Amino acid sequence: MQPESQHATEVELQAWMDREMPPERTHWLDVHLSQCGDCAALLAVLQRDTSELSAELQLLDVAPPAVRAGALAMRARSRRQRRVRMLAAASLFIGVAGIASAAPSSPVRQWLHALVERFGRTSESPSQSSTPAVRVDAPPPAPSAAPRSTDASGVALVPGPMLRIVFDSLPASGLLTVRLSDDSGVIVRTSPGAAVFRSGATELRITTAVSDARFELQLPTNAGRVVVLEGRRTLLTKSGAVVTSAWSADSTGARRIPLGQVRPR
Amino acid sequence: MTALFEAQFQRIFRLLHRIAGDADLASDLAQEAFVRLYTRGSMPDAPTAWLLTVSLNLLRNTRSTAARRGLLLTPDRATHSLGDDAPAADEALLTAERQSGVRRVLDELTERQVQLLLLSAEGYSYRDIAIALSMNESSVGGLLLRAKREFRRRHIEAKHAT
């Protein structure tokens, strides 16, 4: 308990005026103010200042608008309904897009792929060429039939209805091994540093960097149309289940196509 | 909800109008705060403090948007039509001068001091003020006292200057 002789602070007097003091302090101050002239005088000054401030602020006031709670509740309800409708529309769109992209030969995946490509390209520096972005996808595990080095590099992508795979820089001698698989992605593997891959919505361009590069190409059986070219020479065409190539498949289903048969122009 | 509206709408309108000096804006923002409360669906733990926080944030956002657009959000705060009646005209002129004096003094204070003064003048509890202004409840009294002193000092200076 504070001694009666001790004066109240201005903050305490302010809190007392605002009824924000704890009950025990309020009681002490009630008693103290009845006995201490100094504190009572200080309180009177604070009360006068507060009263003047209140009067000055009231000069600024205007009549409040006539607003009914019901009208605001109705606005809130309509806003909630709009949100629900938007949410439903967004869910429907996502659902339809998901189903459409899952359908065989659906263009939706291609559109999404093109969109991602375009979006990715906008973040590139202007000095970069207009060639599609280099894919950095890690290739999936190799099929068991194919011997592969553990440090092999390559690219994996999901084909649209039409895909061209073009070897645009010709090694002096090289080998391309093509296999069909039940996977959903096109996979190309080679040794590290042997090639640079650039992919767009409908084309995968492979620029070889060594003279005897060996590539292994895995094509999904359910892919649409795939054409593999070396420069302008068609090496292999796959249209649905039909594969056309001058090189026939061996007993393991692999087609071994020599590269570097066309001289660079 | 209706009871809360009846208790708080006019106070919040008055608070926003005193800060912004624009009755239309204050009305829009006070209504928006209640629409957001109704849209929320459930009552917050401290409904009054929630409404104050939302209202002050809405005002701050409106002001910063207006500032970004290069608009000056200082509307004609004291527009009065002076009639032919000379005594009434004198009185209106005097009131307009006093209004601009108060407005000038408020403009000289910090945003926090103005909010403290006006929230306290509306009779809000220290707890609601502390929540609305994101401050410690125990420091509300001291800061409020300082804001009042500052208002009084500047108000007296302004009176002497005129």
Shape of chain B: globular
Count of distinct strands of chain A: 11
Spatial order of the strands forming the largest sheet of chain A: 5-6-2-8-9-10
Indicate the percent of residues in helices of chain B. over 70%
Estimate the strand proportion of chain A: 15-25%
Secondary structure tally: strands of chain B:
0
> From the helix content, strand content and strand pairing of chain B, which structural class follows?
mainly alpha
What are the low-pLDDT stretches of chain A, counting only 5+ consecutive residues below 50? 124-151
Terminal CA distance of chain B: 47 Å
Largest sheet of chain B at a glance? none
Number of helices of chain A: 5
In sequence order, what are the helices and strands of chain A, one letter per element?
A: HHHHHEEEEEEEEEEE
Radius of gyration of chain B: 17 Å
Number of helices of chain B: 7
Describe this structure in words.
The complex is a heterodimer of chains A (265) and B (162). Chain A is an alpha/beta fold and 265 residues long. Chain A contains five helices and eleven strands, in the order H-H-H-H-H-E-E-E-E-E-E-E-E-E-E-E. Chain A has helices spanning 10-17, 23-35, 37-58, 69-102, 107-122; strands spanning 153-157, 162-169, 174-181, 186-190, 195-199, 203-208, 214-220, 225-230, 233-239, 242-245, 255-259. In chain A, the strands form two sheets. Chain A has a six-stranded mixed beta sheet with strand order 5-6-2-8-9-10, with no helix packed on it. Chain A has a five-stranded mixed beta sheet with strand order 1-4-7-3-11, with no helix packed on it. The longest helix of chain A has 34 residues, at 69-102. Chain A is elongated, with a radius of gyration of 39 Å. Chain A starts with 9 loop residues before the first helix and ends in a 6-residue tail after the last strand. Chain B has 162 residues and is mostly helical. Chain B has helices at residues 2-20, 23-40, 47-68, 86-108, 111-121, 126-132, 140-161. In chain B, helix 1 (2-20) packs antiparallel against helix 2 and helix 2 packs across helix 3. Chain B is globular. Chain B starts with a helix and ends with a helix. Chains A and B meet through helix 1, helix 3 and helix 4 of A and helix 1, helix 2, helix 4, helix 5 and helix 7 of B.
